[in-house]
Design a protein that fits this description.
Layout (H helix, E strand, L loop, with lengths): L1 H21 L8 E5 L5 H9 L4 E4 L2 H22 L8 E4 L8 H4 L3 E7 L2 H13 L4 E8 L9 E2 L3 H8 L5 E8 L7 H20 L9 E3 L6 H6 L4 E4 L21
Parallel strand pairs: 1-2, 1-9, 2-3, 3-4, 4-5, 5-6, 5-7, 7-8
This protein binds pyridoxal-5'-phosphate.
């Protein structure tokens, strides 16, 4: 499995590089988050072994459980077997987040991609204060119109970013968006272009703070287009696990609950 994973990672990295070259962007500005919701813990362990550090889950329960189990394994490896420490993974929460799950999420999460309301952000702020952390977050915007349930409206984004800047225990690192569920490349590109414009608007209106540098958009089917329009974080699942058994029950899209 390790060889297959290594090949897949290399292939995606190459595609990221090619996409950057086409639009004259610096490839070091793009980070890949491996979205592992469809694969087993064993696949995640192998991913870490081949050097992937940023992993994403779309459900709090899964993220918590998996992060705890992986950490336990890493501890055992150094403690009991004297093996060199592998850096711990950085866990990204990419799916819809409910306020009552925030507390359980915070001890493990590196970045929350899916903040779409002041109320949710206030809960993150309050819980983060209790454990003395400052949580990097992204504001999820609803641009495609299809996943109408989640994400803040385009017109409300700048104001929300301004409000979130007043919270001490979170940092707004940028925006997150999902492309439309379609093969229509024109529509995909128009959507990402709109997100890029919105990102630039937030920056030019000085609504954002110093950490506002990330644009999380692009998945297996559309990440090259996303890079064309300024993505700095691409969230890749399916394409990364091609040829590897998908045996996890949570193999369903995040946004259909
Ligand atoms: C599942 C998921 C991804 C990865 O999707 P693929 O099409 O498998 O690459 C990215 N972002 C979010 C929010 C997801 O839920």
């Amino acid at each position: 499995m390790k060889r297959k994973l290594t090949d897949n990672v290399k292939r995606i990295e190459q595609r990221i590089e090619d996409a950057c070259q086409r639009v004259d962007r610096d490839v070091s500005r793009i980070k890949m988050v491996a979205v592992t919701k469809t694969v087993s813990l064993d696949v995640i362990r192998n991913l870490l072994d081949v050097g992937v550090r940023d992993v994403g889950e779309s459900k709090v329960q899964e993220l918590d459980k998996r992060a705890a189990m992986i950490q336990e394994g890493l501890n055992r490896r150094t403690r009991d077997h004297g093996l060199p420490a592998i850096p711990r993974p950085r866990w990204h929460m990419v799916g819809h987040l409910q306020r009552n799950k925030v507390k359980a999420l915070l001890p493990w999460v590196e970045m929350i991609h899916s903040v779409d309301s002041l109320r949710l952000a206030e809960e993150i702020d309050a819980q983060a204060a209790k454990i003395d952390r400052v949580i990097p977050i992204l504001v999820e915007i609803n641009v495609s119109g299809e996943s109408a349930k989640h994400g803040v409206a385009v017109a409300a984004t700048t104001h929300l970013v301004e409000q979130l800047n007043t919270l001490d225990h979170l940092e707004v690192h940028g925006l997150m968006a999902m492309g439309p569920l379609t093969d229509d490349e024109t529509r995909i590109r128009l959507t990402f272009e709109r997100v890029q414009e919105l990102y630039d608007e937030v920056v030019s209106e000085r609504a954002c703070g110093p950490h506002f540098k990330e644009l999380s958009m692009g998945m297996s089917n559309d990440f090259e287009h996303a890079i064309e329009f300024g993505a700095t974080i691409v969230r890749i699942g399916t394409a990364l696990f091609e040829g590897i058994e998908m045996n996890h029950p949570a193999a369903e899209p995040a946004q259909t609950e």
